[in-house]
Amino acid sequence: MSIPPPATSTTSADVALEHLLATPQHFSFDAAMAVLEQVAGNRPLSDVIRFHTPAGLATPTSDIVSVDALPDGTFRVVTGFGGLTGHDGVLPRPYGALVDEQHRARSNALSAFLDMLAQRPRVQFAEAGTKYTARSIAGSDTLENSERPIAHALFALMGFTSRNEALRAGINPSYLLYFSGLIATRPRSAERLRTLLEEWTGAPVTINQFSGHWTGVPADQQSRLPGAGAGQFCQLGIDTVIGAKMWDMNARIEIRIGPLSLASYRSFLPQGSCHELLTCLVRTFIDDDVECVVRLGLKQAEIPPLQHDAIRLGADSWLPQPSNRFTDAFDAIIPVAQRV
Fold this sequence. Notes:
The chain has helices at residues 9-22, 29-40, 93-104, 109-131, 134-138, 149-158, 163-168, 173-178, 180-184, 190-201, 262-268, 275-285; strands at 49-52, 64-69, 75-79, 205-208, 213-216, 245-248, 252-260, 291-298, 329-335.
């Protein structure tokens, strides 16, 4: 019921590098450079990467054709663009034909010389790509996640002016950043709320958008038959309501979570360790003017027997049931309080 801690930067860099070396064609140029820059650490890209141009005039199907790790700690990167020769080379075609001819003669002297001339512009292009992207800002190690410039932009997209406002709402800013893509998207939908809660709880979640409940009708709006006094709201099939309450299908949303284990179930109950965060996440996603309840489910195998102990009636206690009960218990309904 909690987001796993992010992997260390070293572990993340190693895993990303393994993917890059194995499937370089799946990476865009900027993404590949970001991975290699992270591996390089404090070394400039010019000391880590050696760019090369593929032979021939065929158009590569990806930005990165191949990436090879060399024994001296550098990387040989073959890119599908930016060379002096090749399908988009700036030199006349005869130069490309001459390079191909020398390759067939097993001589790389000319292509190596041309790659050396193109090395500096390619490095500058790579550095510009890693500098002016959100990825480079988010990947900075000098600031805490919620203090980075990209975090301020994400908070604004979610409707928060700052990290401190998120803290006042009762939510760890890291949770908001993790779910920023779902919270910032408009219009907000039940499917996105379901995805958010399933990711956080690790349990099945269903949302009934038309749960409905009884709504009180003010005395001055109740139906009265014509008589000694003036009648009102008494047209059958149009505005007549019998009684002081009416059933409103649009008045309430019900969030059904579970079935859960007994420990997880109790953590979502009021005074449980996860109840406040659940309430804050739901109210961040749903406006306060919409009534919302959470229906918690407990796995049938974990329904506790009735005990004369500290139990909460209507929450985690059930009357003895037949031993052949095969249904999970979805009996606890908890109102989601409005934000203060």
